[in-house]
Amino acid sequence: MAAQKKTSSGSTPRSKGIVKRKMQRTMDEYKHHELESGRGGKKVTSRKQAIAIGLSEARRSGADIPASPTKRKASKRKTSKKT
Asked: Is the pLDDT of residue 8 over 50?
């Protein structure tokens, strides 16, 4: 079986489909004031937080999405402190 072709952005077409579906559902819930965050169940009021929740759900579903830039910076700092 042939390997999946990666697009210029680095993610596979399957990953893009997962992200699209998850983001559509998440943003729809946000728009209708139904999106809740975490275990506390508070309503999400920030668009950026809604996007972060959608990407997180897509990652859990198996989409190949790189970590956010702030997480990458934090991990670089941790590795440089160890050396």
From this structure: no
Report phi then psi at 8, rounded to 5.
Answer: -65, -25
The answer to whether residue 27 scores a pLDDT higher than 80 is yes
Rounded Cα distance between 72 and 65, Å, is 13
* pLDDT at 72 exceeding the cut of 90: no
**What is the value of pTM for the model shown?**
0.67
Mean pLDDT in residue range 39-68: 89
| CB-based contact 19:65 (threshold 8 Å) | yes
Structure tokens belonging to residue 16: 């893009």
CA distances from 2 to 6, 11, 39, 41 (A): 12, 16, 41, 43
3-state secondary structure 35-63: CEECCCCEECCCHHHHHHHHHHHHHHCCC
Rounded CA-CA distance 26/53 in Å is 7
